[in-house]
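User: SRPBCC family protein, Streptomyces violaceorubidus:
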Amino acid sequence: MTQELHVTEHTITVAAAPETVFALVERAEDWPHVFPPTLHVEYLERSGDEERLRIWATANGEVKSWTSRRVLDREGLRIRFRQEVSQAPVAAMGGEWIVEALADGGSRVRLLHDFRAVDDLERNVAWILEAVERNSGAELAALESAALRVGGDAEPYTFEDTVHVDAPAEEVRTFLHDAGRWQERLPHVARVLLKEDTPDVQHLEMDTRAPDGSTHTTTSVRICLPDGRITYKQSQTPALMSVHTGEWTVRETPSGSVAVSRHTVVVNTAAVTKVLGPSATVADARAFIRDALGGNSTITMRHAKEFAERRGRTEPVAPAEYASIQQFYARQMRLLDEGEGDAWAGTFTDDGVFDQSSFTEPVRGRASIASAVRERPAPPPGTVRRHWLGLPAAWRFPDGSVRTGYDALVVSTSAGAAPVLRLSTSCRDVLVADGDSWLVRHRYVGHDGQ
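Assistant: Predicted structure for SRPBCC family protein:
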């Protein structure tokens, strides 16, 4: 039996250009910090004017997920959508966004829905109608707010923090996924409550300590994605933010992994002077939020690093092996200081990688590394450059490689002048045995201050 088709329409007038409004609806990846119900959106396919999306959103307080197809009519400022697979009590749903130009330069937005309820049950129809009414109203109001702040100080802004980890990505992901244990693992977390009634959908309530000793309660929904990413959206934010979304990403590298914390924030402009003082600006609020969120997420990643490296490492290398590693580094740095670039490059494997935080792309392969050394500018006449390495820490990993971490300084001394510190770095290597010595398979040099 065919279920009854129900149709709804919601409208709003927005004092913004139709193209501005349409762009906000078109960019589905931005919906989590535009529309309150939307938690996360993933593009599954994109081709011309057609798209497939996986969407996570709240409906009547429940987290729902579905896949939709969209057809974009950019000239007509219309977007048709249809759910491919719906979640009960929805049997089928589709609709259309229509943006119409008004004579005064503003826009009229129409949001149409059509749906069928599972088994045509009255309670299912009522549930869907309530969700559509609530979400459509919230989305249109938020769309108006987002359109009015385009080009202004209150637009969303995004920033990232990164931590390099000498351990496999999976170990870091384990720490980030197990947020229910953060109270015992993180110094800035005073209380945490984690619920996961639906697999890979986590509801997190957390009290976070500020540097002044005060605590702030936040609640968020976290989506744990198959590729290991964790995206989240706060449903209860501190007063200074009206929207806060984020993402944890951990990617494998030849020398371990890299953890990245990404935040997107909309400042609550009405609260700026109340929270930060009468002379505070939106720029001040952004800086304050950047420091607070970035500081906490970096602390979290550093503890994840410690956790992962402790679990990922085996015992430190044997004393004789450690002595041979020290001898290897002493010889390698001497070659570099004496201008033996080709011989220095020969201490890398054929497929070796040399990377620095100042590089756009790593240098790959022994031949390319040798060429890069030859092309680097020579010191001025009468100037000597020396590389000094601190004592390396070294561990043998399950894949048989040895991974080391050490600090390195570059010192430049001109004739008749005092030495000058040119560079302070932190380095991580992956070493493989080469007879009774070693070769570098991957080196990462992080410049302090970058």
